[in-house]
Amino acid sequence: MGTKISAISYFLPDQILDNIQLSAEFPEWEATKIMEKVGINRRHISGKEETAVDLAFEAAKLVLEDYDPDLIDFVILCTQSPDYFFTAVAIIPVPMGFVRMSASPGFAPEFVITLSG
Questions:
Q1: Which residues pair with 9 in a beta bridge?
Q2: Phi then psi for 11, rounded to 5 degrees?
Q3: Does residue 24 contact residue 77 with C-beta atoms inside 8 Å?
Q4: CA-CA distance, 24 to 12, in Å (whole number)?
């Protein structure tokens, strides 16, 4: 018996901010210059009440559609934008069987979501 990553998923917020919109807000920045400097044409922006856990929950729903939840040992959430920077455990929604999210002390932005068994 071994360990493996069976699937990877992501979920992006609906709101998009592109370089043309950004340059309209900041006229001294040209859209083409922004692209040249940062290499990004558009960004997905989360809503005011939308958190990393909300996005992770949607991504997990997408990836778990093709798997039997009873066969999954755990789901790993990696983020540079955790909901809480100084807490070790955060409760997240239970509908999919998720019980808790715990942070590993050595991996500040990485969180492990465990499944109820």
A1: none
A2: -140, 130
A3: no
A4: 23
pLDDT at 35: 95
Q: Which amino acid is at 2?
A: G
Q: Is the pTM of this model over 0.85?
A: no
C-alpha torsion angle, residues 105, 108, 110, 116 (rounded to 10) = 40
CB 104 within 8 A of CB 79: no
What the block records as the tokens of 47 is 């809503």
d(CA 47, CA 25) in angstroms, rounded, equals 19
Pick the closest to residue 113 from 71, 62, 77 (CA basis). 77
Low-confidence ranges of the chain (pLDDT < 70): 1, 73-75, 82, 84-117
